[in-house]
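Colleagues,

Please find the record for the two-part complex below.
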Amino acid sequence: METITPAGQLFQYLITGITVGSIYAMVAVGFNIIYNVTEIINFAQGEFVMLGGLVMVSLHVGMGLPLIAAFPATMIIVTLVGMLLDRLAISPIRRPTVLSLIIATIAASILLKGTAMFIWGKDPYDLPAFSGRNPITFLGAVIQPQYFWVIGFLIITVIVLTLFFEKTILGKAMSACADNPDAASLVGINVKQMILLSFALSAAIGAVAGIVVTPISLMEYDRGAMLAVKGFGAAVLGGLGSFPGAVIGGLILGAIESLGAGLISSGYKDAFALIVLMFVLFYKPSGIFGDIEVSKIKRF
Amino acid sequence: MLRIGKLPISTFAFLIIIFPWVAHQIPGIEHYTDVMVFAGIYSLITIGLSLLMGYAGQISVGHAAFYGIGAYVSGILTARYGLNPWICMLAGISVAGAVALIVGAPCLKLKGHYLAMATLAFGIIIFIVFNEEAEWTGGPDGMSGIPGLSIFGFDFDSVEKYFYLVWGFVFAAFVFSVNIIQSGAGRALRAIHSSETAANAMGVNVSGYKVLVFVYSAVLASLAGSLYAHYLNFINPATFDLFFSIKLLIMIALGGMHNLWGAVIGAGIITFLNYEWLHYFEEFEVIVYGAILLVVVIFFPDGLAGIPDMLKKRLGKH
């Protein structure tokens, strides 16, 4: 089984791409939750992923908490950070404009990055894989068990969110804010609280992405920005605001990146996703599932 | 802040002219002239960005790319091909201008977040190119052997001489930009800022002006990059990373982006923080920058240059 067939190689790239793409999809879902409620693009979205990975390392490896306890604890900590971000950086802005909101979330992102460097230093950290590191060979590709965890958590995230937004009062209230904040507040929805909730949810999803990806790609303090841009690429590719779009966009972007790095140039690995992002922005900014009419009535 | 008078400009010119002499008299700050060379280089970029962001209302989080293009075109053509530095500077400007034209035209159709992300992605792509095309750029290790500048046998071989050269460029750019702002083009840009639809209806060529000011800001950034390369004689990609684009954003947000003076003041303050006052924090300076940016955007949306107006309004109420 030592020979690597071209087909197996391609399958390998695809599997790796889908795994990485699942992470981009989760970041994209995070973007969408905040965007749908507030029309803000949170440039600090990638920092939640970074924090998720590093906090998990501290709790699980550093303090020795079992996986089953460290996972939710990490989610809670990062969720609190997300809520703080809204309370300290977004809601105090008196004259919210596109420019000031972009600058505020960029400021928050470099603050989080600097704080992470202060706490964890510059070294990358590893996390034990959830179910060992014995790879499975399938159709000529080598698959890490952790890949299944990543893809599984993406599926769980999407199911839970869909149920939340469609079946619960709270979720419906959040969707209402997205449609029309003024009308939402007229029927008694506290828009400020919904915004806070959107940051909390989005941070929690970022944390999940960070926790599940760290055993595969390690985690360090400065990974946030790149994850944010690629996650945004996934969100735009699928159509900003659309959850199925975020998933499809993330998987496509991950596959393109993995195939590009494998077949064309590994040095330009990070550039492929960004080039795709720019092309989508230039030629079809509404994305695959996005609605051009909806994007026209958005304030920003 | 539509009018920028002759008196403040001449006062500022006078202060700049005597700066090296004053710095030389006071022990402990002799090297401030060196820091001011960088302040001048950054001012060139922020003046262009102020026009783009403050006056035309278009965000860019990727101007480190144009700064880098200027530096690398100058560096490669002089160090590898031995061409005249001034010609290379013009070549850098042309390349940066052409790239800005190609990228700017589709980019500037985008609004708000989309534009920010597109410029950010563009900046990172160019940064990756600087790292990967090692045959040309020397890769992550950078390239050395970039010659200094001289004209008609006069060498800009001391810090003071280079100081006057850089600030000469800054003044030219400043005066030229003031003229743009006070001309019909400036009014068109402000009209675009307040409402693109209204500007369009009044017959302003919205997309044309936006691309034009984008190209202008790219050209200034490229010029700054060339000056940087010839001053340090060495460049590496890390100088032109995403964080530098963010620092540019901090400079003009701090100074006040609706005001050309703000661009120069912001560049000056951040340069001194960068090279002088933040040594104590070492790498954690990024936390300070984040805090500055957040405080400015929350409490001083018009930056330092907007404080006099803010005070006037406050006092006027009582």
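The interface with chain A takes residues 53, 57, 59, 61, 106-107, 109-114, 116-118, 120-122, 124-125, 128-129, 131-132, 242-243, 246, 249, 253, 283-287, 289-291, 293-294, 297-298, 301 of chain B (CB under 8 Å).

Comments are welcome before we finalize the supplementary table.
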